[in-house]
C-alpha cells in the first residue's frame, strides 16, 4: 500500500503557490526597478552631456570643448561608476575622448537626448548622445557628444529598490505560509490525538477512543471503535476459552501426574517403568503448558484492566524469587538463584501482576535451561532500570534469537518448555515502554537484558538533556569553526612601485617585513607618468602595488579598467577609496615656503591673497626670487594647480602676480628647494608638505606656512594593477598601510606628513571621475597655455 502525507501535500502545494506568486512579483518588481534606476540615472547622464554640449566652440575651423568639472562631479556622486566620453566633429573626426566608445551608435540630428546601451572594454555601459548644430563650421554641421558610464550604481540602486519591495512581500508570504502551516497542523491535531492515544496504549488495550473529535473524522473514529470492540470481543472469547480449557485440564493433569509418580514408585518391570516415565513427562509438560496459558490470560487481563503504579523493582524481584524458592524446595531450586540488586531504589511505572509474571518467566526459563546457578542483577544506567538474568546453559544461536520471542516457539534444546515465556516477557516489556534483548554471556550461556524507563525520567527531562547536549555540540562546532585556518602560502616576492625616493621607502619595507615576515617586497622608484604608462601599456615593469601622490592618474587607470578590485574597503578616519580600486593612504597639503632672511617675522604672507598683493605691490623686490615647479612636467604640480584653479578664485590673480615677479620655473621640487636653501630664491609656492619637511629637516633659515585661506590637500593613493602577479599579497600590504601602524610607518619615513591641526577636511581632494577633467587632451592644453601665459607674461 502506497503511503503519502495529506498534510505534506497541502503544505507543498501552498508553498509552491506562494513561491510562484513571489517569483512573478519579483520579476515584475525587478523590471520596474531597473526601469526606474535607468530613468533616474539617465536624467543625470543627460544633464551632464548637455552641460558638455554647452561648451562647444568653433575656432579657426576647429572644434573646441572645455569639459566642465561640474558635469563629471555630478556623475561621480555615486562613487561607483566609471565615466567615458567621445566628442566628434561634424566631419566625424575625433575631437577628444575615447576613440572606441559607442562605435556602433549612429549619429543623429536634432536636439533630443538619446540613450543607448553598449559595451566598452567588456563592461556594459549606458551612453547619452547629444547633438549640437553649429553654423560656424564650413557649411554647417552637427557636433556629436557621447557620454557613457558603467552600470554599477544603476544595478546597486535597482537591487536596493528591489529588495526594499521584495522584503515586505517575502515577509507577507512567510507569514501566510506560517498561517497555512498553523491551520493545517491545527486541522490535523484531532488525528494526532487519536494517533497518540493508540500509540500510548498497551498491546492489550482495546478500549474505545474517547474524547471529542471533529465531524470530518468522526466516522473514522466510530469505525475504529467498532472494529476494536469486535476484535476485543473475539480476543476475550478466545482467551476465556483458553483459560477455561487450561483450568479444566489442570486438575486431571495434576491427578495424572500424581498417579504416574505413584505408579513409578510401585512398578518393578523395566518396560512398565519406561512407559510410566514417559507418561509422567508428558503429564508434567501438559501441566506446565496449562499453567503458562493461565499465566498468559492473567497477564493479558492485568495489562488491560490493572492500574499502573510506581514500584521499586528491587522489591518485585525479591518477592518473585522468594515465591520461586518456596515452589522449588529441592536441589536446583532456591539455592541456584544469585541476587545482585542496586543499593538505591529503582522505581518503575508498571502493573504489579504483569511485571511479576515477566520476571518469573525469565527466571524459570533460565532454571529450565541450565543445571548451574542463575545470576540476577539489577542496576540503573542512563535513566533506565536494567535487569539481567544470566545462566550458563547452552545459549541460543544468533539465528534463533529473534524467532524465540514468538508464541509456542522453543529453542534448539532438549529442555522442556511451553514456548510462551519469552513471548509473555516481551509483551509485558513493550507495554511498559521497555525493551528486551538476548545476548551471549561471556564464557558461555545466555543473558536476558530487560530495560525499563525509570519512573522519574520523563520526556521533558530527556528533552532538556538533549538540548544541553545539542548546545554543547553547537558550542564545540562553533569553536571548531572559529579556529583559524592555516595561513595560505603567500607570494615569496612582490614589487612595489612609487615616486618616493628609495631611501625613504626602506623604513616602510622594514615595517612590512616585521608584520609579514613571509613577504619579501621590493621597491622601484619611477616617475608617476612613467609608472602609469607602463601599467596602461602592460609594459615590462612588474607592478604589484602602485603608490603615487597623483590621484588623477590613479583614477584614470581605474576608470580605464587597469585596476584590481579589492575584496575589502577602507574603513578608518583617514582612508577613502573609489570603487575599492584606488585607496587613499593619507593627504599631503600644498604649502608655501619663505626664506627667513628676506622677511621680517610678521611680514610673512599667510594667505594667498596677501602673497598676490605683496608681489603686485613690491614685484621689483622679489624679481626672480619666486620659484614654481613646471606643471607641464611634474604630475603632482599639475594636479595641485588644477585643484587650485577649481577651488580658489585667486588662482589667476596669483599666477599673474608670479608673472609680474618673473618667477623662476623648475623641473623638479628638489631643484626648487635646493635653490631656496642656497638663497637664490625667497619664496617657493605649492610645495608638497612631505617633500618640504624632508628637504628642510627643521632648518631655521626657512619657514613653512600653511595658507590660511585655502589649502590643496592631494591624497597619496595606492592601487593594485589588474595585471599584478601577487594580488593577494599586495592586498595584505595595502591593508597594513591603511591601519594606524601602517600610516605611522609612512609618516616616520617622511612619505606621509604628520597632519597639522586645524585643516578642514572639506579641503581634501576626493577620489572620483571628476579628477579626469583636467586630464582631457584639450582641457590640459588650454589649462597649460593659460598657466604659462599668466606666469611668464603676468597676464
From TrEMBL:
Keywords: Kinase, Membrane, Phosphoprotein, Transferase, Transmembrane, Transmembrane helix, Two-component regulatory system. The chain crosses the membrane at residues 12-32, 165-184. It is found in: Membrane. It catalyses: ATP + protein L-histidine = ADP + protein N-phospho-L-histidine. Residues 185-236 form the HAMP domain. GO terms for cellular component: plasma membrane. Residues 244-456 form the Histidine kinase domain. Gene3D superfamilies: 1.10.287.130, Histidine kinase-like ATPase, C-terminal domain, Periplasmic binding protein-like II. It is an enzyme of class 2 (transferase). One of its GO terms (molecular function) is phosphorelay sensor kinase activity. Its main location: membrane. Its EC number is 2.7.13.3. InterPro entries: 2CSK_N, HAMP_dom, HATPase_C_sf, HATPase_dom, His_kinase_dom, HisK_dim/P_dom, HisK_dim/P_sf, Sig_transdc_His_kin-like_C. This is histidine kinase. The lineage of its organism: Bacteria, Pseudomonadati, Pseudomonadota, Alphaproteobacteria, Hyphomicrobiales.
Amino acid at each position: 500500500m502506497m503511503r503519502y502525507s495529506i498534510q505534506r501535500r497541502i503544505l507543498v502545494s501552498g508553498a509552491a503557490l506562494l513561491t510562484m506568486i513571489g517569483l512573478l512579483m519579483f520579476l515584475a518588481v525587478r523590471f520596474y526597478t531597473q526601469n526606474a534606476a535607468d530613468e533616474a540615472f539617465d536624467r543625470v547622464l543627460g544633464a551632464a552631456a548637455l552641460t558638455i554640449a554647452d561648451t562647444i566652440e568653433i575656432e579657426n575651423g576647429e572644434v573646441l570643448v572645455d569639459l566642465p568639472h561640474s558635469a563629471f562631479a555630478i556623475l561621480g556622486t555615486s562613487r561607483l561608476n566609471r565615466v567615458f566620453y567621445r566628442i566628434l566633429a561634424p566631419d566625424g573626426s575625433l575631437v577628444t575622448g575615447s576613440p572606441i566608445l559607442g562605435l556602433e551608435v549612429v549619429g543623429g540630428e536634432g536636439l533630443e537626448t538619446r540613450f543607448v546601451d553598449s559595451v566598452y572594454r567588456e563592461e556594459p555601459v549606458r551612453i547619452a548622445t547629444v547633438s549640437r548644430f553649429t553654423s560656424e563650421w564650413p557649411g554647417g554641421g552637427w557636433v556629436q557628444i557621447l557620454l557613457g558610464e558603467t552600470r554599477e550604481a544603476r544595478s546597486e540602486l535597482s537591487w536596493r529598490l528591489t529588495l526594499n519591495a521584495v522584503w515586505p512581500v517575502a515577509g507577507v508570504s512567510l507569514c501566510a505560509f506560517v498561517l497555512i502551516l498553523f491551520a493545517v497542523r491545527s486541522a490535523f491535531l484531532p488525528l494526532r490525538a487519536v494517533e497518540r492515544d493508540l500509540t500510548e496504549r498497551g498491546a492489550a488495550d482495546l478500549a474505545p477512543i474517547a474524547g471529542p473529535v471533529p465531524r470530518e473524522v468522526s466516522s473514522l473514529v466510530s469505525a475504529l471503535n467498532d472494529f476494536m470492540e469486535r476484535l476485543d470481543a473475539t480476543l476475550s472469547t478466545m482467551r476465556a476459552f483458553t483459560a477455561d480449557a487450561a483450568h479444566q485440564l489442570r486438575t486431571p493433569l495434576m491427578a495424572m501426574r500424581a498417579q504416574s509418580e505413584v505408579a513409578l514408585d510401585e512398578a518393578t518391570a523395566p518396560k512398565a517403568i519406561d512407559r510410566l516415565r514417559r507418561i509422567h513427562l508428558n503429564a508434567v509438560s501438559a501441566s506446565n503448558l496449562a499453567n503458562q496459558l493461565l499465566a498468559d490470560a492473567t497477564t493479558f487481563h492485568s495489562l488491560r484492566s490493572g492500574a499502573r503504579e510506581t514500584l521499586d523493582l528491587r522489591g518485585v524481584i525479591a518477592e518473585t524469587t522468594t515465591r520461586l524458592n518456596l515452589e522449588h524446595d529441592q536441589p536446583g531450586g532456591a539455592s541456584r538463584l544469585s541476587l545482585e540488586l542496586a543499593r538505591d531504589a529503582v522505581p518503575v511505572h508498571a502493573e504489579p501482576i504483569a511485571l511479576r509474571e515477566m520476571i518469573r518467566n525469565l527466571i524459570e526459563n533460565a532454571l529450565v535451561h541450565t543445571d548451574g546457578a542463575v545470576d540476577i542483577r539489577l542496576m540503573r544506567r542512563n535513566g533506565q532500570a536494567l535487569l539481567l538474568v544470566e545462566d550458563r546453559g547452552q545459549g541460543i544461536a544468533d539465528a534463533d534469537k529473534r524467532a524465540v520471542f514468538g508464541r509456542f516457539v522453543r529453542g534448539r534444546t532438549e529442555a522442556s518448555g511451553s514456548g510462551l515465556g519469552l513471548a509473555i516477557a516481551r509483551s509485558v516489556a513493550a507495554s511498559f515502554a521497555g525493551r528486551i534483548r538476548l545476548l551471549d554471556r561471556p564464557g558461555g550461556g545466555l543473558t536476558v537484558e530487560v530495560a525499563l524507563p525509570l519512573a522519574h525520567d520523563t520526556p521533558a527531562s530527556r528533552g532538556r538533556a538533549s538540548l544541553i547536549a545539542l548546545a554543547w555540540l553547537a558550542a564545540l562546532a562553533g569553536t571548531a569553526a572559529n579556529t583559524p585556518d592555516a595561513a595560505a602560502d603567500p607570494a615569496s616576492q612582490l614589487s612595489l612601485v612609487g615616486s618616493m625616493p628609495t631611501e625613504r621607502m626602506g623604513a616602510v619595507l622594514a615595517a612590512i617585513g616585521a608584520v609579514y615576515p613571509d613577504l619579501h617586497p621590493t621597491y622601484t622608484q619611477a616617475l608617476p607618468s612613467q609608472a602609469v604608462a607602463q601599467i596602461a601599456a602592460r609594459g615590462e615593469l612588474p607592478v604589484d602595488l602602485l603608490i603615487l601622490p597623483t590621484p588623477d592618474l590613479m583614477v584614470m587607470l581605474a576608470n580605464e579598467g587597469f585596476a584590481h578590485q579589492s575584496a575589502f574597503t577602507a574603513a578608518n578616519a583617514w582612508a577613502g577609496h573609489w570603487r575599492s580600486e584606488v585607496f587613499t593612504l593619507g593627504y599631503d597639503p600644498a604649502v608655501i615656503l619663505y626664506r627667513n632672511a628676506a622677511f621680517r617675522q610678521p611680514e610673512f604672507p599667510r594667505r594667498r591673497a596677501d602673497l598676490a598683493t605683496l608681489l603686485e605691490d613690491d614685484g621689483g623686490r622679489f624679481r626672480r626670487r619666486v620659484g614654481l615647479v613646471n606643471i607641464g612636467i611634474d604630475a603632482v604640480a599639475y594636479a595641485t594647480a588644477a585643484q587650485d584653479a577649481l577651488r580658489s578664485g585667486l588662482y589667476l590673480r596669483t599666477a599673474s602676480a608670479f608673472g609680474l615677479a618673473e618667477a623662476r620655473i623648475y623641473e623638479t621640487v628638489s631643484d626648487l628647494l635646493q635653490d631656496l636653501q642656497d638663497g637664490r630664491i625667497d619664496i617657493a609656492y605649492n610645495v608638497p608638505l612631505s617633500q618640504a619637511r624632508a628637504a628642510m629637516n627643521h632648518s631655521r633659515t626657512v619657514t613653512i606656512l600653511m595658507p590660511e585661506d585655502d589649502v590643496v590637500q592631494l591624497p597619496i593613493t595606492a592601487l593594485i594593477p589588474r595585471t599584478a602577479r601577487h594580488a593577494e599579497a599586495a592586498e595584505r600590504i595595502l591593508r597594513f598601510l591603511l591601519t594606524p601602524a601602517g600610516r605611522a610607518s609612512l609618516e616616520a619615513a617622511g612619505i606621509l606628513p604628520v597632519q597639522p591641526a586645524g585643516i578642514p577636511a572639506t579641503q581634501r581632494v576626493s577620489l572620483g571621475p571628476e579628477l579626469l577633467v583636467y586630464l582631457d587632451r584639450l582641457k590640459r592644453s588650454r589649462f597649460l597655455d593659460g598657466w604659462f601665459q599668466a606666469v611668464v607674461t603676468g597676464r
